């Protein structure tokens, strides 16, 4: 921060910027010890860790767009430091490197390329863009980060995967229609995957979110009508029961789900497989 012209408040904020996220130190304590200007910069870099990853990062991008020069400088320096670490670490070229983070490489690529655009006015914007391209490749097409996150969550295994799927559910329930459509398109692709280990969690996930959306219900109905793989059918049936067990909360397509379930029960060959 100092190297690129930050004033005293910016340098102090750079030293303190992770404290409200990672420790018990509060913004009010920082404000009392170092003043309003330092606290404002730190606040501009502090994320709400209770929100899903995509919502946090979208919030940060929006805050940086509206921030003053000092906040943008500290934010850029923080992310530039991370990029330098990625670029210097030879393991970053290994397939498992990004497993240590809370989001996949494709999500990180979306985030850092978005930051390179938003922080285009900082003094080291060219270096930031170059390092982003070095670490993640050229800027990807306009992929929806909600879709990228669902793919990441549903392909994860074990306890970490369960946590990611819960976060994906929260993301779905708080998403706009455009985001849900992107997430649903990913689920379609995963359900169609010949690998049942990928298709089963995708079908199960529809039970998490169907109560709030005809988008999910329609996909469950299609699986019940057309799917032939027993494991995927079984997952879709369980997902359907999750929705119907609490139908008073209002799945928009309860009757369609009931009809599809009854039709499957009447198809003796497919029902026997399940």
SSE string, helix = H, strand = E? Answer: HHHHHHHHHHHHHHHH
Structural class: mainly alpha
Mean pLDDT: 88
**Topology, number of strands:** 0
**Beta fraction of the residues?**
under 5%
Helix content: over 70%
Taking the alpha carbons of the first and last residues, their distance comes to 61 Å
Low-confidence stretches: none
Mind summarizing the main beta sheet? none
| Overall radius of gyration | 23 Å
Outline:
This protein is mainly alpha-helical. The chain has helices spanning 8-16, 19-22, 27-34, 36-45, 53-66, 69-88, 105-118, 125-136, 145-155, 158-173, 177-191, 196-209, 214-226, 230-244, 254-266, 268-273. The termini are far apart.
Notes on the structure:
It contains 16 helices and no strands. By secondary structure, the protein is an all-alpha fold. It is elongated. The relative contact order is 0.07.
Give the tags:
elongated; 274 residues; mainly alpha
Strand and helix map with partners:
Blueprint: H1 8-16, H2 19-22, H3 27-34, H4 36-45, H5 53-66, H6 69-88, H7 105-118, H8 125-136, H9 145-155, H10 158-173, H11 177-191, H12 196-209, H13 214-226, H14 230-244, H15 254-266, H16 268-273
Helix pairs in contact: 1-4, 1-6, 3-4, 4-6, 5-7, 6-8, 7-8, 9-10, 9-11, 11-12, 12-13, 12-14, 13-14, 13-15, 14-15
């Amino acid at each position: 921060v100092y190297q690129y012209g930050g004033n005293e408040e910016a340098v102090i904020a750079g030293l303190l910027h992770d404290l409200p996220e990672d420790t018990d130190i509060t913004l009010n304590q920082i404000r009392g010890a170092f003043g309003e200007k330092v606290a404002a910069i730190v606040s501009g870099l502090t994320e709400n860790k209770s929100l899903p990853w995509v919502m946090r990062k979208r919030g940060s991008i929006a805050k940086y767009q509206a921030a003053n020069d000092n906040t943008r400088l500290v934010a850029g320096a923080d992310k530039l430091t991370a990029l330098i670490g990625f670029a210097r670490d030879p393991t970053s070229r290994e397939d498992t490197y990004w497993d240590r983070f809370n989001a996949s490489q494709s999500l990180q690529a979306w985030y850092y390329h978005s930051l390179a655009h938003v922080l285009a006015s900082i003094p080291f914007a060219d270096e930031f863009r170059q390092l982003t391209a070095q670490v993640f490749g050229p800027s990807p097409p306009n992929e929806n980060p909600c879709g990228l996150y669902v793919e990441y969550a549903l392909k994860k295994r074990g306890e970490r995967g369960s946590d990611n799927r819960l976060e994906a559910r929260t993301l779905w329930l708080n998403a706009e229609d455009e985001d849900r459509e992107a997430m649903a398109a990913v689920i379609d692709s995963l359900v169609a995957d010949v690998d049942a280990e990928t298709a089963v969690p995708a079908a199960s996930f529809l039970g998490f979110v169907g109560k709030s959306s005809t988008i999910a219900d329609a996909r469950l109905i299609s699986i019940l009508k057309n799917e032939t793989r027993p494991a995927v059918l079984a997952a879709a049936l369980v997902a359907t029961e999750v929705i119907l067990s609490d139908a008073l909360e209002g799945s928009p397509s309860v009757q369609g789900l009931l009809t599809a379930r009854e039709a499957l029960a009447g198809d003796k060959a497919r029902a026997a497989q399940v």
